[in-house]
Amino acid sequence: MPPALFDPPVLHRFFFALKSDPVAARQTHAFAEAELGAKGLLEPDRLHVTLAITADMPTVPSGLIDALQRAGAAVRAEAFDVLLDHLSGGSGTVALRPARVIRPLQALQAQIAAAMTQERIAVRAGWRFSPHLTLCYRKGAGPIDKAVTGFRWQATDFVLIHSFVGWHRHDILARWRLCGAEEDVQPRLL
Question: Which of 35, 65, 180, 182 has the least C-beta neighbours within 10 A?
Answer without folding.
Answer: 182
